[in-house]
Task: inverse folding
C-alpha cells in the first residue's frame, strides 16, 4: 500500500542566519546573504569576490569539545538543522519507540571539504608526516547522516546521497520512498554543504561560471552563480503516523521526479528538466494546471536560466504564462548539495504563508527568460501545489511536488 508522506518539522542554517525562520524572512525580504569573500588560506589570494557564507556560527556553543574533533563544518550544519526540525516536529524517538523505524538520508555535494583541505595543506605545505587521526571520519560523505542517527539514537536505514546540486532533492525523494512503502515510519532528510575551502574556490574560479558581483537569476546582466553554504533538514512521516500523534502538518511531499539528461556533463538540457517535472506531477497525481508556483533551480548562469525557462514552457504550455516562478539563490547563494533543501523551505513557506519570495537582485528582463519571476518584491499567492527544481552537473535532475498541509489537497485525495 502506498502511504502518503507529510512534513512535520524543518530546520535550517544559512547565510541568512541560524534557523529556518531567518532564512524564510530573508527570502521574502530579498535580503541577500551574499557578502565579500576573504580567502580561507591566509597565505594565498583568491579571485572569487563574493560568497554566501554562514557568518558568526560558533560551533563551541553547540557541541562539546570532544565531539567537535569528529565534526567537519558540513556535519555541524546538518546537526544544527536536524535539532531544529525535530524540536518543531515535537517528536521523541525514544519515548515513542520509533528509533528503529526512523530513517536518515542526507545529501551533500562535496562532504567534509574544509577538513580535507586543511589536511592537504598540512601534508603538502607544512610537510607533516601525519594527518589528523579523525580525517577520514570527518570527510566521508555519510558523516552528516551518521552523526544525526547517533544524535537521536536512530537505528533505521541511514545513508548519504551525492548527486552534486540535486543531492538534497534526491535525498528527500529516497527518504519519502522508504516512508511511502513502509520501510520506515519517519525520516530525517535534507542536505548540507560547507564548500568554502581554498581548493574548492580555486576549482570554481577555473570553471568561469561564478559572478563577481552578486547572483541575479533570470535577469539581464547576470554574471553567474555565487557559492553558498548551509543546511536544511526535514522530518518526514507517514500521514497515518503524523495524525496518530496529532502532529502539525506543514506540507505534503506528494511526489517527485528524477532522471538523467544523458547528454553533457555540464550543459543543461531542457528536455531532461521538463521530463523530471512531468514525472513529479505524475507521481503526485497532479496536472500542470494545479501548480501555482515553481521554486526554480535558477542559478544565475547564462546557460541554466534560459534552459530552465524553455523546460517550463515545454511542459506547462499556455499555463506557463500564469505560473509564478522565482529563484531564491540571490539570497542564500548556490549551496550545491544543500540547495534543494534550503529551497524546500521556500516551497513550504509559499504554501503555509501564501507569500512568494521574489527573485532578488533582478535588474531587467532577458528576452530568453520570459516568465513571471517576481522581481525583487514578494507577492501574495494562494496555491495548493508547488514544484521545487534541482538540476545538477552530470545531467542529474530531481524535482519535488509539494502540496498544502492544512487539509486542502489531503482531504481531496483521501
Result:
Amino acid at each position: 500500500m502506498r502511504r502518503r508522506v507529510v512534513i512535520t518539522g524543518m530546520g535550517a542554517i544559512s547565510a541568512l542566519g541560524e534557523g529556518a525562520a531567518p532564512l524564510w524572512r530573508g527570502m521574502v525580504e530579498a535580503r541577500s546573504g551574499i557578502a565579500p569573500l576573504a580567502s580561507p588560506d591566509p597565505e594565498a589570494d583568491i579571485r572569487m569576490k563574493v560568497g554566501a557564507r554562514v557568518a558568526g556560527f560558533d560551533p563551541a556553543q553547540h557541541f562539546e569539545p570532544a565531539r567537535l574533533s569528529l565534526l567537519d563544518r558540513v556535519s555541524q550544519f546538518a546537526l544544527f538543522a536536524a535539532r531544529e526540525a525535530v524540536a518543531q516536529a515535537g517528536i521523541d524517538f525514544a519515548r515513542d519507540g520509533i528509533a528503529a523505524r526512523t530513517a536518515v538520508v542526507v545529501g551533500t555535494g562535496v562532504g567534509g571539504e574544509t577538513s580535507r583541505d586543511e589536511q592537504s595543506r598540512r601534508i603538502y605545505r607544512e610537510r607533516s608526516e601525519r594527518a589528523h587521526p579523525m580525517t577520514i571520519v570527518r570527510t566521508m560523505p555519510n558523516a552528516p547522516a551518521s552523526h544525526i542517527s547517533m544524535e537521536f539514537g536512530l537505528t533505521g536505514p541511514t545513508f548519504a546521497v551525492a548527486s552534486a546540486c540535486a543531492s538534497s532533492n534526491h535525498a528527500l525523494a529516497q527518504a519519502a520512498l522508504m516512508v511511502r512503502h513502509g520501510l520506515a515510519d519517519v525520516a530525517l532528510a535534507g542536505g548540507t554543504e560547507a564548500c568554502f575551502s581554498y581548493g574548492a574556490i580555486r576549482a570554481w574560479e577555473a570553471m568561469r561560471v561564478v559572478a563577481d558581483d552578486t547572483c541575479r537569476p533570470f535577469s539581464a546582466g547576470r554574471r553567474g552563480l555565487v557559492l553558498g553554504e548551509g543546511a536544511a533538514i526535514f522530518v518526514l512521516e507517514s500521514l497515518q503516523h503524523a495524525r496518530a500523534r496529532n502532529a502539525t502538518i506543514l506540507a505534503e511531499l506528494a511526489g517527485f521526479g528524477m532522471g538523467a539528461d544523458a547528454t553533457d556533463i555540464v550543459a543543461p538540457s531542457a528536455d531532461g528538466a521538463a521530463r523530471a517535472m512531468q514525472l513529479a506531477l505524475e507521481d503526485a497525481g497532479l496536472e500542470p494546471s494545479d501548480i501555482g508556483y515553481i521554486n526554480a533551480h535558477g542559478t544565475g548562469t547564462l546557460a541554466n536560466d534560459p534552459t530552465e525557462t524553455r523546460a517550463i514552457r515545454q511542459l506547462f504550455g499556455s499555463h506557463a504564462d500564469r505560473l509564478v516562478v522565482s529563484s531564491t539563490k540571490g539570497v542564500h547563494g548556490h549551496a550545491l548539495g544543500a540547495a534543494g533543501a534550503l529551497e524546500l523551505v521556500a516551497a513550504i513557506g509559499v504554501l503555509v504563508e501564501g507569500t512568494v519570495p521574489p527573485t532578488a537582485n533582478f535588474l531587467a528582463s532577458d528576452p530568453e527568460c520570459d516568465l513571471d519571476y517576481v522581481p525583487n518584491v514578494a507577492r501574495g499567492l494562494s496555491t495548493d501545489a508547488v514544484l521545487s527544481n534541482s538540476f545538477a552537473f552530470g545531467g542529474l535532475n530531481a524535482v519535488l511536488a509539494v502540496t498544502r498541509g492544512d487539509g486542502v489537497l489531503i482531504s481531496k485525495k483521501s
Notes: The radius of gyration is 20 Å. The first strand starts at residue 5 and ends at 14.
